[in-house]
Amino acid sequence: METKRKPIPIVQDACGFEGYDASSLMSETAKLRKIITKRGTLEILIPLCCTVEPVRYKQFRQALKGISSRTLSTRLKELEKSGILERQSFNEIPPRVEYRLTNKGQELVESMINLLQWMKKWSKSK
Hints:
- It is built from five helices and three strands; from the N terminus they run H-H-E-H-H-E-E-H.
- With 126 residues, the chain is mostly helical.
- Strands 1-3-2 form a three-stranded antiparallel β-sheet.
- Strand 2 and strand 3 (96-101) form a beta hairpin.
- The longest helix has 20 residues, at 103-122.
- The chain is elongated and about 65 Å long.
């Protein structure tokens, strides 16, 4: 027996995001999910919000023990391509590459911190 799915009852104009409706906001969550839910992404972004200094690749490698070099490199490239990180390379020997949050990245991390604070507040395992 097949059951019909009922659509979510959405009250028009009740959403507090000017210029968006609920269905477009729901589709935007897929883009956000692609950015922040990949393995290692949060581990890269959260420490960057706690410093104004650029972070070198080597520092990430030392801090992120459970993440392979390949995964780290891939995530850094994805975050750079998304405009969340800024990469600066220096013509030195040995090569030096530094990463820092862009304004877009800083806003994303601040939003994630708010979510983490919410999670901590409402967590059952206090």
